[in-house]
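Private note to self, pasted from the team thread so I don't lose it. Backbone tokens:
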């Protein structure tokens, strides 16, 4: 079947078999290898991407079901303000070890921050419950997400309001 979708802001047209999962399509056809395949049952969260702005498990999503949709992988979020803050915080606060879960963890954490659901450690833990990490024990991951959310909140406080600013002559 032929599908048309937008991946990381670029239009894509491809022939796929009806049984091809989105994760395999992204990795094999488009060489977007940040989408990791772990359990292939939707449990570990390593394959998390966004589909029309919502986080989904790419291992459970059929590529043909994404016809006409917008997909964002970690590669497509490299310059995103929230992702930049998360990457910095994960680096500073040791939020990763082996790195296998990190792409899915970052995509999920970005969604939490974007929706204003990263205000407390318990809220972050609950929001990341679908992402499994076998290395860190989650403490540094939760701290990293919280620090990124705090940094973005502080940046919003000092950022001038957008829109038209008129000046009054002196």
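Design output:
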């Amino acid at each position: 079947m032929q599908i048309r979708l937008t991946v990381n802001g670029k239009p894509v047209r491809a022939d796929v078999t009806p049984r091809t999962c989105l994760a395999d399509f992204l990795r094999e056809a488009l060489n977007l290898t940040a989408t990791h395949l772990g359990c292939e049952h939707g449990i570990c969260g390593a394959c998390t991407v966004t589909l029309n702005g919502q986080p989904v498990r790419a291992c459970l999503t059929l590529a043909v079901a994404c016809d006409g949709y917008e997909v964002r992988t970690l590669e497509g979020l490299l310059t995103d303000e929230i992702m930049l803050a998360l990457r910095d915080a994960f680096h500073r606060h040791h939020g990763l070890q082996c790195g296998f879960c990190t792409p899915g963890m970052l995509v999920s954490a970005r969604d939490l921050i974007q929706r204003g659901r990263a205000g407390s450690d318990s809220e972050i833990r609950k929001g990341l419950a679908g992402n499994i990490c076998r290395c860190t024990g989650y403490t540094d991951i939760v701290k990293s997400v919280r620090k990124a959310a705090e940094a973005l909140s502080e940046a919003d406080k000092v950022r001038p309001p957008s829109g038209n600013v008129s000046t009054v002559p002196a």
